[in-house]
## 1
Amino acid sequence: MYVEERVEIDAPPEQVWEVMADVERWHEWTASITAIERRESGPLRLGASARVTQPKVPSVVWVVTDLQPGRSFTWVAGNLLFRSTGSHTVEPRLGGGSVATLTVRSRGLLLPLLRSRIEPLTRDYVALEAAGLKRRCEQ
């Protein structure tokens, strides 16, 4: 399963990155997140983890597996039964502003059983996140 949302934002990439990388505050700008608890303090870094609580799904721990400061981060949650990878990227937009790309890729042994429930919810949550990111950065 693969879900992607791209959103143009009238704000510089540095500002968009600052909002994206401050994961503990996501609940302030997207209805797809109830709470995020970082397990470490300080800036987002490779290996950092956070417990993410969302409506309609159990809370899970996400671990940062790739980080390009100022540009992107990827984190992973789950196990062999069901595993999701979320990526968040910001790039400069031609003519000014930014383009943010948010993706979620899920796989695992349980995916065929869960897909009809999980895929629409994931699409909704990624769309909410993209819209909320745009609103927050353009304030």
## 2
Amino acid sequence: VAEAGLTVLLEVCERAVEELGSAVPQAQLRALLVVDRAGCLNLGGLAGALGASASATSRLIDRMQAGGLLTRDRAAVSRREIVLVPTESGRRLAEWVRGQRRAALGGVLAAMSQAGSDALARGFAEIAASAT
């Protein structure tokens, strides 16, 4: 039952950003959202969050940098460490994606009973808390 509901929510989120088409591949979008949420992240942190190897993540970052979504900067704490930071256009895209998803999910929640919507919100809050 939970998997069926999750499948519906994932499809709603995917449809919400369909207009991007192939302009921003799904892997890049996922990486952008991870980096944007963190503010800045090093390659190892992004690779871990994506469950990908460092070499595959590095190639992904190269493509994202070429596309104007991310930049590589020196870390403030350690000048030797390189961190990934969303560009202004990358931040705007991440914000747009989250807004589209929120609107789509709002439609799903509006179609639910108040009790169901409240229970789902509590469940999501617990999932978010357990993931951090």
